[in-house]
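Hey, sorry to bother you again with one of my protein questions. A protein chain has come my way and I'm curious about its shape. It would help a lot if you went through both lines with me. I owe you a coffee for this, so here goes:
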Amino acid sequence: MMIGIAESLIDSQGFDGRDMTYTFVRNYESEPFRGYGPGPPRIFRAIRAGAAWDTAAQQLYPGGSFGNGSAMRVAPIGVFYYDDMKMLTEVAHKSSEITHAHKLGKDGAALQAYAIALAANLDPQATLDRSEFLARLRDYADEAVYEKKLDGMKGLLAQPD
């Protein structure tokens, strides 16, 4: 599905939810053996049967799925919108809604896309300041559960290698 995001962003020159959804559907139909979890194929079948692309996921999972599928596929959004954090957040949320419409699913995807954008903006010649990188992720996080996890990572970074 990461490939589908990249294909759709390039073909549409930005986010087009309908195009991205049908790119996911076509890619799934041409290669269903690629290790999809149980939810997306059900959503794709519902869309093919006439469900609206922007509400099919919520029909399958009332309240929306908050799994990690949308975070796993979001890297192209971090690259495409590396210089526009407002659009990055918006597109990460909207692309997540196609299959993972719960706020935690959307925010997890946005956080991962932000990490990719931060990495894309780093000076490759400079040493990575892990604490600063983590602090920026923590500042960006919109959900307490992610803030808590990032705080736990801060403690791990304080330990000797």
The longest helix spans residues 103-120. The mean pLDDT is 95.
